[in-house]
Write the structure tokens for this entry.
Amino acid sequence: MAAAPKEDRRVAICDAVFELLGEVGYDRMSMDAVAARARASKATIYRKWQSKPDLVTAALLQRFADARQTADTGSLRGDLVAHMSLGCEIAGSEDGAIIAGLMTAAARDPELAATVHTCIYATKRSPYETILNRAIERGELPAGADVDLLHETVHALIINRRLSGAGPMDDAFVERAVDRILLPVLRSSVADPA
């Protein structure tokens, strides 16, 4: 079944935002350029989105809607490796370069910073809950493991690796991070809830 015309228009606009972010960056992207690229009227865009951060929010949420899925590998370690590998794959892609550019621009724009925090961090909490709940059900972790600490740690590891260029975001990095950082952090978060 084909998408409704309004949905088609929204998708075209969000795609145009991402294309322009990749080509010219956030600072040089304009609402006019988005309208021209999407072949939409400026009135259509301004009616739905009042600012560039609003437009970026819509584009990010559309682009990464499926990124909240989590693989069920049958083990906590396997789930963490699969989830972190997906995060590294996205961070290492052209989309990751766009996100890195948005993070740089967000340092100068509080409204964009709120958008980036919501779209790149806050909306990504549920996969970590799923991973931990499955581990608790399998008896791999006792109840009380700190989902927020896990979420923050994975996010920090991937973002730091992407922005600092400290090395590849490959399987060796993921496995080292899971075995030496994430699993010990999870186990200590249960043992020491403070």
User: Anything to note?
Assistant: The chain has a mean pLDDT of 90. The domain at 5-63 is CATH 1.10.10.60 (Arc Repressor Mutant, subunit A). The CA atoms of residues 136 and 176 lie 23 Å apart. The chain is about 75% helix and 0% strand.
